[in-house]
Amino acid sequence: MRARSMRWGVLVASAALVLTACGGGGGNQLAGGTDVPVDTNAEFAPGSTMANLKQAGKIRIGTKFDQPLFGLKGLDGTPQGFDVEIGKIVAAKLGLSPEQIEWVEAPSKTREEKIEQDLVDMVVATYTINDKRKERISFAGPYYEAGQDLMVKSDNAEITGPESLRASGAKVCSVTGSTPAEEIKKFVDPQNLTLFDVYSKCSDALRTGQVQAVTTDNVILMGLVENSGGQFKLVDKQFTSEPYGIGIKKGDVPFCQFIDDTLTKAAGDGTYEKAWQASAGKVSPETPPLPQLDPCS
């Protein structure tokens, strides 16, 4: 696991300030006036995924629709957040504008299936890289590294970290098929773990007292806390390292290498930082470094 110190500071911004995406004029427009030019001169080896996507004039990107700061469906029906911006950066290097992206909802439990069944061309959806998933798909990246934490009601002083869960008899909620749902089993008894298909249902369960804690990656919880109107807080005891990757069809090494090259260039020319500041940076102002990329296989 790669460890990285993340200073969250004082979280004062609202998730409502998450990126509003707009496009046009041959550019990939980000909130705040930043712009990622579409590479209309991009050329690729015939028959490659990149060439096929450019020729089709469309890319299908799976992301989440319920994750503030990373992938949240806006009132106009368009998802917004850092994952969405990473997807736009990759699309721009393929010569595709935001209008040529088809966004497909990809909850945790269906991400591998959507790739295997050719329902998407890639998935950018707070998607932790692990060996089990690599048996079915390939990953590019990682493009970000998060860590698992706990969210509780603001007046809860009993839950201070994962080690306090079993002793307190707390019921914990997470999402089916997610890495955090597996990790938290080390700290709670099976009968005290509740699983839903989306995190918004976990928030409702916490609000109504059906569970005493929600667990997933800290960046997701940050968005849920910001949307809670002061009802929830982050325990702020990160206990895992979660590298987020871009899921693609298994064995597509050239596409993986293309995405990795795109991420490296974005980190070098400031595009990555602009994408962060226009989305998750509204809550966590310190732009994280691009993690060390894994070899493509």
From TrEMBL:
Residues 278-297 are annotated as: Disordered. The keyword Protease does not apply. GO terms for cellular component: extracellular region; outer membrane-bounded periplasmic space. PROSITE patterns: PROKAR_LIPOPROTEIN, SBP_BACTERIAL_3. GO terms for biological process: amino acid transport. Residues 286-297 have a biased composition (Pro residues). Keywords: Signal, Transport. Residues 1-23 form the signal peptide. It comes from the Bacteria. Residues 58-280 form the Solute-binding protein family 3/N-terminal domain. Belongs to the bacterial solute-binding protein 3 family. This is Glutamate transport system substrate-binding protein. It comes from Saccharopolyspora gloriosae.
